Amino acid sequence: MRIGILNNLRAGRSDAQVSRLLALLRRHPEVAHVETDSAEAVPEALSELARQEVELLIVNGGDGTVQHALTEILGSREFGDRVPWIAPLRGGRTNMSALDLGASRDPVRGVAGLLEDAKTGRLHDRLCPRHVLRVQSPRDELDTYGMFFGAGVIYRAIELVHRLFPKGRSQGVFGSTVVTGALVAKLAMRRTDGVLTPNKVQMLLDGEPARDGEYQLIISSTLGRLFAKMRPFWGREPAPLQFTSIACGADRFGRCASGILRGRPGAGVTQENGYTSRNLHRLELRLDCGFTVDGELYAPESGRTVRITADDRVDFVRA
Fold first, then answer.
1. What pTM, to 2 d.p., does this model score?
2. pLDDT of residue 134
3. Which among 131, 136, 137 has a CA at the least distance from the CA of 97?
4. Over the chain, what is the mean pLDDT?
5. Is a pLDDT exceeding 60 seen at residue 56?
6. CB contact at 8 A, 8 and 92
7. Partner residues linked to 144 by β-bridges
8. Is the pLDDT of residue 179 over 80?
């Protein structure tokens, strides 16, 4: 199997780790290797790896790098009709996709394991198929692919993490966990100001209108778990797109928060009390607030329509 690595040099890891990875690759000249230093360079890098007929694409970067790679592969079809296996490393500030797949904490060890299993024919044991979100917004001419979508509060929370924590790994899981804990505590006290200001959103869930109102949380994902082992989804429908919303003033949030974050809601977590969690084929939103796809931020814009589906399925590989 032809193996290639997309190596994002700006993903937030230390120079020492980059040096270790490059040293490993020097011992494996059969591995195609392309380095990038910006999102704009990803299409050209993937075109080069496609020309080399890479079948297993290792992505050394964070969620943003994975999102750009998925968009080019599934949207721009850089590999044509062929979709390579994709192995995300824990190589960035936020690594929800790699964490969900069970990637090694050490990216260099992850690559070494992949190369060893490729040599012995055991890569199939590492396969972890996942559906991938497609997020479209006609007004923005946006058509991007990723694994997590969040609107309103989530968008502002990421902005807050970027303001409060120095650039680097502390902006990843550590910063996100600290800020999430603080916001959950404030929600439990029924705070609705600042980052927690609710947003008016109109929603269609598989074509069915949801109740009009203001929402403090709107998220969607195809991951089994988010950072800090959170899994705030509990829908049971046979559909790939996990969706959860919490309306402003939802009843008993303080009492139910722990169960909600673990995907095990209590008896009071009902649609009548302001909580909705369903598995969908199609989610349509009309909103004015900002949103994020895998940590990439899209600024607020009045009257924007966003459509989310998850029709594509990718063979991810645990690194």
1. 0.91
2. 98
3. 131
4. 89
5. yes
6. yes
7. 135
8. no
* Lookup result for tokens 């063979």: 315
Q: Is 281 exposed, middle or buried (0-12, 13-18, 19+ CB in 10 A)?
A: middle
CATH 3.40.50.10330 placement within the chain: 3-130
CA distances from 243 to 9, 129, 284 (A): 33, 19, 11
Which tokens hold the place of 217? 């949380």
Task: Convert 145-183 to b/e letters by CB count within 10 Å (16 or more is b).
Answer: bbbbbbbbbbbbbbebbeeebeeebbbbbbbbeebbeeb
pLDDT of 60 above 60 = yes
Distance CA 179, CA 1 (A): 42
Taking residue 316's Cβ as centre, other Cβ atoms within 10 Å add up to 24
Asked whether the CA dihedral 185, 188, 190, 195 is positive or negative, the reply is: positive
Class of the CATH-defined domain 3-130 = alpha beta
271-282: pLDDT as tens digits: 999 999 999 999
- CA gap 246, 219 in Å, rounded: 9
Q: Which residues contact 239 (CB under 8 A, 6 or more apart)?
A: 206, 278, 279, 280, 281
Domain 148-293 falls in which CATH fold?
Tumour Suppressor Smad4 (2.60.200)
